[in-house]
């Protein structure tokens, strides 16, 4: 069987570390994940997906991630059933995180303030203040230049 979920989205709130009665670290948080498609003439929709992280992953998330930050989560989908306070049976779907990764640079992350998300400048359109690294064709002596396809070893 295969049960793998990989998501990238922004944290809706700061994650908070809790501990079970057996002193196991746990945190739950929600990711705002934009859908990859939208109907013509409509805005792209966002799904809010619940994530649970345990033990060292929970501690890592709570220590290094904050509201508005872009994160990538790899884990599995789990369901659980419960009865709410009104006696109605409910089913919850959530992602149990195996790995949580930074998905943006620290500079871009700092642009996301506690008041809300501020989009960072596009990497495809660099600002004049931060020019993109340029390719130089100068000879560094580290590599042999291959002039034609006839010189390729395969």
Model description:
This protein has 154 residues and is mainly beta. The chain has two helices and six strands, in the order ββββαββα. It has a five-stranded mixed β-barrel with strand order 1-3-4-6-5. A hairpin with a 5-residue loop joins strand 5 and strand 6. The longest helix has 10 residues, at 55-64. It is globular and about 70 Å long.
**Low-pLDDT residue intervals, each spanning 5 or more residues:** 118-137
Work out the helicity level.
Answer: under 10%
Distance between the termini: 40 Å
Q: In order across it, which strands form the biggest sheet?
A: 1-3-4-6-5
Q: Beta fraction of the residues?
A: 35-45%
Largest sheet: 5 strands, mixed, barrel
How would you describe the shape? globular
Class by alpha and beta content: mainly beta
What's the number of helices? 2
Number of DSSP-assigned strands: 6
Q: What is the average of the pLDDT values?
A: 81
Rg over CA atoms, rounded to whole Å, is: 22 Å
What string, H for helix and E for strand, traces the elements in order? EEEEHEEH
Outline the fold blueprint.
Blueprint: E1 5-11, E2 18-19, E3 25-34, E4 46-54, H1 55-64, E5 70-83, E6 89-102, H2 106-110
Parallel strand pairs: 4-6
Antiparallel strand pairs: 1-3, 1-5, 2-3, 3-4, 5-6
Which short descriptors sum up this protein?
globular; 2 helices; 5-stranded mixed barrel; 6 strands; about 150 residues; mainly beta
Provide a short characterization of the protein structure:
The chain is mainly beta. 10% of the residues lie in helices and 36% in strands.
